[in-house]
Design a protein that fits this description.
The chain has about 210 residues and is an alpha+beta fold. The protein has one domain: Roll (3-methyladenine DNA Glycosylase, Chain A), CATH 3.10.300. Helix content is about 20%, strand content about 30%. It is built from 6 helices and 8 strands. Strands 1, 2, 3, 4, 5, 6, 7 and 8 form an 8-stranded antiparallel beta sheet that branches. Strand 4 and strand 5 form a beta hairpin. The chain binds a DNA duplex (13 and 13 nucleotides) through strand 3, strand 4 and helix 5.
DNA sequence: CATCGGATGTTCT
DNA sequence: GAACATCCGATGT
């Protein structure tokens, strides 16, 4: 497994969002390793994207990390409770990034279970196991990724990074993004990427009507 | 399985 | 004071 280079994150945001499907998110802390395979992402493309925190070039204390170098983590709190993690893309002063929306648990299941449900993995119901990491707030909680510790974190470090995975067999599908109904025309952009038919994707796409 | 509403607190107007 | 890139439990089918 090879850690993804900074050059990977400097590519166009839509390309990074798609290429991240199948890669592995890895956190190492206190001798413990947590690994998840990325199965769902969303692109947020700065000034021109009404759904992005940086729409119109808006620069605040919260989103400052998005204006920095590619390959860093932008972590923010949503609805007062949930911590969500993004990868900053492109380059300085291009406030774009990719939200990690869901992963498949690969290693560190025991600590994920403790953080999510305060009980050991073998005590979890099948529903709880499915819901360990199938959403942006859920994977943030399962990995213990908080804004205080990880916002602005360099993903080239050993403690939190993304590595190559065996993504050859994965078929990537797209859809509109989730949870951005108030964002005008931007809500229709097909900037959500996910592994087709994967059990840990946060929502199933609606059945085709036509 | 689908839908609905409350939780919770930070951010920005 | 309102909005918010969400989650969970309750309720009805």
């Amino acid at each position: 497994m090879q850690k993804l280079s900074r050059a990977f994150f400097q590519q166009p945001t839509l390309k990074v969002a798609e290429a991240l499907i199948g890669k592995q998110l890895i956190k190492q802390h206190d001798g413990e390793t947590i690994v998840g395979k990325i199965v769902e992402t969303e692109a947020y493309i700065g000034p021109e994207d009404r759904a992005a925190h940086t729409y119109g070039g808006r620069r605040t204390k919260r989103n400052e990390t998005m204006f920095g170098e590619a390959g860093h983590a932008y972590v923010y709190i949503i609805y007062g409770i949930h911590h969500c993690i993004n990868c900053v893309t492109v380059g300085p002063n291009a406030p774009e990034g990719v939200l990690l929306r869901a992963v498949e648990p690969i290693a560190g299941l025991e600590s994920m279970a403790q953080r999510r449900f305060q009980r050991s993995y073998e005590m979890l119901t099948t529903a709880q196991r499915r819901q360990l990491t199938n959403g942006p707030g859920k994977l943030g909680q399962a990995f213990g990724i908080t804004r205080d510790k990880y916002n602005g974190h360099d993903l080239q470090s050993e403690s939190l990074y993304i590595s190559d995975g065996d993504d050859a067999a994965i078929s990537v599908a797209t859809s509109p993004r989730v949870g951005i109904d108030a964002s005008g025309e931007a809500k229709h952009y097909p900037w959500r990427f996910f592994a087709k038919d994967h059990a840990y994707v946060s929502k199933r796409p609606k059945a085709k009507a036509d």
